[in-house]
Amino acid sequence: MTSDSSSPLAAYGQWLADCPREWPSEALHIARRSLIDTVAVMVPGAADSAPAKLWPLVSTWGSGPSVAVLQPQTLSPPNAALFNGTAAHAMDFDDNFDPAKAHASAVLIPALLAIGDLEESSIGDVLDGYITGLQIMGLVGQAVNPFHRSRGWHATGTLGAIGAAAGCARMLGLDATHAAIAVSISTSLAGGFMSQFGSDTKPLHAGLAAAGGVQAALFARAGLTAGEATLDGQTGMRTLMVGQDVEDLAREMEGKAEHGQTMRFSTENIGEPLHVLEHGLKVKRFPNCGSLHRSLDGLLELREAHGFGPDDVDHVLVRAPAAHLRNLMHENPQTPSEAKFSLEYSMAGALVTGASTLSDYLPESIQRPEVREQMPKIRKEYVELLESEFPTEVHVTLNNGQTLSTSVPMPVGSKAVPMSDAQLWAKLEGCLDAAPQFAQREALLEVLGNLDAERPLRHLTGALQA
């Protein structure tokens, strides 16, 4: 691996090795919030469909030092990351990260916890790995998005592996050359198609990316070599996972890039702006696809303001960016996984109950007659504009002919409309309530309430064990 600073791999490896561990207090606060949020969704997620099917298999692949959430058996770091990453994304209640168009924390946190158990790290080590891994994930995301995502790649599986490799390389203390190799290797472990949405394989993508990041960093530490142009070369990620027209697309984005998505690799001032501060994370208010959230926020805002119920409504029209609506492909969902990607089901449910909660996505909830009766009232219009160019519009037409309307540019939980620390803690407690089989609730709450940087990580991972 060369030291050419114009090479993204070399520049990112140098930054991972050399950047001081001196983060602003707000950056550390956001990282702690992300840790709390991810642990919150992992606990009930461990019993969800995909992890429940995965555990009998992965538990036979050998033991190791890393904790698997809600399980008595510890696993090798890659296998713990695989299980915990799948659990973190199973309910689709984990955060979103705009530069990468990915579920960042569901990949980063499980990977870093697995490496932390291996290395007997501190909580501060995990926070440092999170901030640095998120930065590299975001920078690579900005070089391939929005078209990487809009052309059907599930960026949680692709860019997640790269961010996890970077964060794990940082936690392992790899030098510049080996950190760059870790990122390079991760491109060979990156994958996932949006055609898997609504199936068990969608959350498995997060687990595979977390495991891939762990493997890539450990492969690099073991001395394996890797290509120097796997990000920006003629046969690198940018060309292969965007398309041969990538340069034309980059020119098209000039002057109108959102979330810093310039379609080009930045190799200068890699740590500025710091993505955890500049972009933040979208913490989810609802346990379903993030493309639903602006629509749900708008409907619930109108319902609360005007007091209508389902019997008062003739129809609801959602006008939203086409990229959002294309993610919501299940118009007649038959499973909880499909329901999380259904505008019709989720909006009808919110119209009936005035909320959208974990209980709406239980197997016994999907066929509720009172919700199914409302689904034909939900209409949609695809708007071929970027999400930053067009806020989601919700128009509720009542039976008396009156139309109530609102527009939502950013969802609750985003940087623009942040979820408070108290709201995040309430989400944590609600998630733990949904996991009655979890016996270490009080121990876990104590650790999450005191995430001191010097505290051994094992205090946290031990509280996650069965």
Topology readout:
Elements: H1 8-18, H2 25-45, H3 49-58, E1 63-66, H4 77-89, H5 105-119, H6 123-144, H7 147-150, H8 155-172, H9 176-187, H10 201-221, H11 237-240, H12 246-253, H13 275-278, H14 293-306, E2 313-321, H15 322-327, H16 336-339, H17 343-353, H18 369-372, E3 378-383, E4 392-398, E5 403-408, H19 421-433, H20 441-448, H21 457-463
Parallel strand pairs: 2-3
Antiparallel strand pairs: 2-4, 4-5
Q: Can you offer a commentary on this structure?
A:
- The protein has helices at about 10-20, 25-45, 50-60, 75-90, 105-120, 125-145, 145-150, 155-170, 175-185, 200-220, 235-240, 245-255, 275-280, 295-305, 320-325, 335-340, 345-355, 370, 420-435, 440-450, 455-465; strands at about 65, 315-320, 380-385, 390-400, 405-410.
- The relative contact order is 0.14.
- About 50% of the residues lie in helices and about 5% in strands.
- It folds into two domains: about 10-285 and about 420-465, 2-methylcitrate dehydratase PrpD; about 290-410, 2-methylcitrate dehydratase PrpD (60s Ribosomal Protein L30, Chain: A).
- The chain starts with 7 loop residues before the first helix and ends with a helix.
- Helix 2 crosses helix 4 (about 75-90), helix 5 (about 105-120) runs parallel beside helix 8 (about 155-170) and helix 14 (about 295-305) packs parallel to helix 17 (about 345-355).
- The model has no long low-confidence stretch (mean pLDDT about 95).
- It is built from 21 helices and five strands.
- By secondary structure, it is of the alpha+beta class.
- Strands 3-2-4-5 form a four-stranded mixed β-sheet.
